Amino acid sequence: MAGWLRLWPKPRHGKNLRYLALSWSGLQEDPLLLIAAHVPNLSYLSLNRVSGTETMVISEGSFPQLKALILKNMLNVNQLTVGKDALPNIEGLYIVALPKLNKFPEGFESLVSLRKLWLLSLHKDFKILWALSRMRQKMPQVVEVRVE
């Protein structure tokens, strides 16, 4: 889905949705908070240029079936947080071109099912902080990690 999205469609429309890719939606609010409650069976979510917000939150217990999450080209996002018991089945997490994200997202080390983690084109200090905080050692279950 590409284009302006003023608000999320009626709640019943997302219950059976498995795959969702949003681009250029024009949402000014956190899209993760807006859609999480409406798509409990989602297994793939890609958000590209969708957020005008500075903070994104994957709330507690949300996205129970999600296996892949892609967050791309969000120029204002400087903080990302994962709530307790969120993303219990996540296997791939791809965060690309969030130039203001300068620290490791809170809660990511608790994603025990995570196998692939890409952190690309983030804030210039991100890679240094990643190394200093020894995040790779805190996530031994992740098979593939790219931090560039």
From TrEMBL:
InterPro entries reported for this sequence: LRR_dom_sf
SUPFAM superfamilies, A to Z: RNI-like (SSF52047)
Name under which the protein is recorded: Uncharacterized protein
Source organism of this protein record: Miscanthus lutarioriparius
Classification of source organism: Eukaryota, Viridiplantae, Streptophyta, Embryophyta, Tracheophyta
